[in-house]
Amino acid sequence: QLQLVQSGGGLVQPGGSLTLSCAASGFTMDLHAIGWSRQAPGKEREGVSCILSSSSGGSASYADSVKGRFTISRDHAKNAVYLQMNSLKPEDTAVYYCAAAWGCPTALGAGTGANEYDYWGQGTQVTVSS
Length: 130
Known about the structure:
This protein has no helices and 11 strands. It has strands spanning about 5, 10, 20-25, 35-40, 45-50, 60, 70-75, 80-85, 95-100, 120, 125-130.
């Protein structure tokens, strides 16, 4: 059974850091593009980041809202993908989802590149507040 299991998240103060993890069972993550999306209450889902499979070059893309602050990476040995989030802002507060597809969206941002995936993790809450 193909499954994505997320961990990490929680409450952090503005300016702090968090790392989200997304582990796979039932398939090899490195064969898929893996992305992160987020959805805040009352807002449309936002495509945050995506990393291509190694066979497609393994490059990463980011929404402008997180560029320079978030980093997506793979751990091949653990069959996992991570989202390192630094310099967090209150507007980063949302439920974050990891997801898998055969390719990354062509664009990321609010209402863009958030749903073009085939398999989804369960979601994890990130709250940035003092």
